[in-house]
Amino acid sequence: MRTTIRAASAIDARALSSLHSTNLPNDPAALLGVTFLAKRLYPRLLSDAEVALVAEDASGQVVGFIVCGRPVRLSGLLGLRDFLTILLKVDARRAAFSVMRLLPRYPSDLPGCELQWIAVAAGARGNRLGTQLTLHALQELRLKGVWRIWVKTLEDTPGNIRFYESLGFTVKSRAAGRVFLQRSTSVDDNQGGNHHE
């Protein structure tokens, strides 16, 4: 599959929201639906992002994205009704994680930025698109003077952990069912060479 990676813009908010909702169904924000994501979350993410990239297929359809920036407090975007909707939609196993996701996730003085979300459409997987998006984002961050990036994932998603480790991220801590990984933004040609999505 031939894809083009370009900077994301506000026009992409609906496409990113749709991919987010479809590919990250257990994410608390996704539980609020595409309209919430498109009207409230992604406009904020895209305006505040250090780097936001999309991958388009030959027809111009967005088939993947990555957003990196300072942590966004979802709690600042949610009303009481949104918060209750999340709690009612998640199963007991995910409830604690969902509530914690609404709270600040990292100290505000942590250097660098967070890989906030990355998603690749099901039909575009297997072409290393997630790897390409991440490596492009690392290059862009480095050019902007950002030297460190971190990401968090669920502890019960070993595939995600392996993906990030294959790209040079190292586990820094584990807490409340989450794994925090970090790496430098310097891009090494040898990193990302062993992972097949």
Mean pLDDT: 78
CATH class: Alpha Beta
Spatial extent as radius of gyration: 16 Å
How many separate helices? 6
How many strands? Answer: 7
Strand content: 15-25%
What profile does the largest beta sheet have? Answer: 7 strands, mixed
Give the strand line-up of the largest sheet. Answer: 1-2-3-4-5-7-6
> What string gives the helices and strands in order?
EHHEEHHEHEHEE
Distance between the termini: 14 Å
User: Total domains, how many?
Assistant: 1
The CATH homologous superfamily: Gcn5-related N-acetyltransferase (GNAT)
Structural class of the helix and strand makeup?
alpha+beta
What is the annotated CATH architecture?
3-Layer(aba) Sandwich
- In helices, the fraction of residues equals 25-40%
Shape: globular
- The fold-level CATH name is Aminopeptidase
**Low-confidence runs of at least 5 consecutive residues:** 95-109, 189-197
Can you offer a commentary on this structure?
There is one protein chain. By secondary structure, this protein is an alpha+beta fold. It has a single domain, classed as Gcn5-related N-acetyltransferase (GNAT) (Aminopeptidase). The chain is about 35% helix and about 25% strand. The chain is built from six helices and seven strands, in the order βααββααβαβαββ. It has a seven-stranded mixed beta sheet with strand order 1-2-3-4-5-7-6, with helices on both faces. Strand 6 (about 170-175) and strand 7 (about 180-185) form a beta hairpin. Helix 1 (about 15-25) crosses helix 2 (about 35-50). It is globular, with a radius of gyration of 16 Å. It starts with a strand and ends in a 13-residue tail after the last strand.
